[in-house]
User: What shape does this take?
Amino acid sequence: MLPINVRPVTSKAIPAQANSSWMLASPRIGGILASASSRAERKGRGNGGRAGRIDRERKMKTMADTQFTLEEQTRPRHVGRSSPLGCAACANRRPGWFCSLGSAVLADLELATSTISLPAQASLFTQGEDARCLYLICSGYLKLTAGRAEDRHMIVRVAGPGSMLGLYAVLSHGVYEVTAESLTPAQLRPVERERFLTFLRSHKEAQLRAVQCICQEYRFALQDACRIALAETVAARLARLLIELSHQIGEHTEAGEYRFPLLLTHEEMASMTCTTRETVTRTLGQFRKEGWISIEDSILTLHSPDRLQSLL
Assistant: This one.
């Protein structure tokens, strides 16, 4: 049996005196090592605590920045575009609208305008406000309504690409006669009143086009009056509304059909035809059953415009 202070080694044996000294010194060395280990552990915990605090602060700052960014994105406001698309290259230009001017006149109009983006369900201007700007719709759709804040509102019409909003109010130095609210994300070109008047004085073509746009507004108002006053049945009023929308914001296909986005709710269509939401739903269902219209992916197609016209 080996003595306690003797350890088998693979190389050279440790002298007894050195071995005794090692055993005597080992308690002190053990204490030193333990103390050093404890200090290192405390230091590690301290560094870990500081690192943890820094990491938590960074996470809190990131969350705050993210929340601020989301609030900014959801706020209904106009967002300016630094490099607006040229009007001459726009695919939404339609004959007869203000944006179908000649290239030279259109270039001068671009110099007088900027481009803004409007999110869906955002207000562009409100009825009764001073008309300081008019707006040319480049893309998207807006709903024009009239009425008082405490009473029911009447939807005047849906305006799409190529429409000029606030033209009469700007020319008459008056106030906006309707409220404009976006139904979809939209891009518009605002023109300040004085800059637009200066532009008109310089271009006779633009003057003629402005008169044509005012005549179109008169025709739309006349259509509204005829739809409400002259159509005897709900089916006739709803058919007239669908035909009007197909001409105002729709496209004519080669097959003789009309297609346009169905942007209005049944409740809104009911207010435009002086009936109830349930009646609009039932009448649209009858039109679909007859094969006169179809609705797919929020696109309404008039397959038989003549059949709808026969109801008027």
